[in-house]
Amino acid sequence: MLQPLPDVTTDIPQARRTGSPLNHSAAWRTRITLGFALGLVLATALTIAIALPNLLQRNGAASLAPPGGARPDRDGRLLGHFPYREIAPSELTAVAPGLELQRDAASAVLAMQEAARADGVELVVLSGFRSIELQKQLFFEVKSARNQTAMERARVSAPPGYSEHSTGYAVDLADGSARSTDLSADFDQTAAFAWLQRNAHRFHFTLSFPQGNAQGVNYEPWHWRYEGSAQALRTFEPAQRLSR
Ligand SMILES: [Zn+2]
């Protein structure tokens, strides 16, 4: 014969159904556990709130750094130009009013001017050292004024941080008797250019951007760089390697 199942509710002793010291401690334990859980959630939220802006900023800076969203190539170039550091001011010396070059390059360009003058050619220095700050203006402000894309601008001017002029070793030269050819491809028709082609290497100057150069930069017959010291050679080694 089946025994009737005991009533579960009534089977619980009276003491456990109503409030008792034992029940109190269980409730406290639950409250303490919940407190810990809440604290953990708050601490995690706080950590995320502090770390997230930093993370976003870091990613943002990385993607904003190159002009026009362009990324440097595997060899470090940006839109064809190699990266160059700005020379220390103590390394610079004047070659003409308002124009400075690295000391070795300065004496070389002055000696070259003198030799050219002896041959009846007037070499004019148009531009020497340019700070990265000035290059920033030359690149972005002119780009904006001319409505050029970064790619178009980079064919005629280096992005800031990528100009040979920042090294103090690069000069833009002109012919004193043919100033209409200043900074123009026609400069290669002048007596000054013909003289440079015959003599510049004697003074350790080399044409940085000849016609059809491997860097893909526009032909610049007026832009020459000094390679007459170990430091200068080291500076332009990547560009040298590419043009070989
Ligand atoms: Zn130049």
Structure notes:
- The protein is α+β, with helices and mostly antiparallel strands.
- The chain has 2 domains: 11-64; 89-243, Muramoyl-pentapeptide Carboxypeptidase, domain 2.
- 46% of the residues lie in helices and 11% in strands.
- The protein contains 8 helices and 6 strands.
- It has helices spanning 8-11, 14-17, 21-64, 103-118, 132-145, 150-156, 191-199, 230-243, and strands at residues 92-96, 99-102, 123-127, 170-175, 205-207, 223-226.
- The strands form 2 sheets. The chain has a 4-stranded antiparallel β-sheet with strand order 3-4-6-5. Strands 1-2 form a two-stranded antiparallel sheet.
- A hairpin with a 2-residue loop joins strand 1 (92-96) and strand 2.
- The longest helix has 44 residues, at 21-64.
- The protein binds zinc ion.
TL;DR?
The chain has 244 residues and is α+β, with helices and mostly antiparallel strands.
Helix and strand layout, with pairings?
Elements: H1 8-11, H2 14-17, H3 21-64, E1 92-96, E2 99-102, H4 103-118, E3 123-127, H5 132-145, H6 150-156, E4 170-175, H7 191-199, E5 205-207, E6 223-226, H8 230-243
Helix pairs in contact: 5-6
Bound molecules: zinc ion.
Zinc ion is lined by residues 127, 165, 170, 172, 223.
Provide the β-strand percentage band: 5-15%
Unreliably modeled segments: 6-13, 52-65
Care to count the β-strands? 6
Structural category? alpha+beta
Describe the biggest sheet? 4 strands, antiparallel
The CATH topology of the largest domain turns out to be: Muramoyl-pentapeptide Carboxypeptidase, domain 2
What does the oligomeric state look like here?
single chain
Number of helices: 8
Q: What is the helix content?
A: 40-55%
> Overall mean pLDDT score?
84
CATH architecture of the largest domain: 2-Layer Sandwich
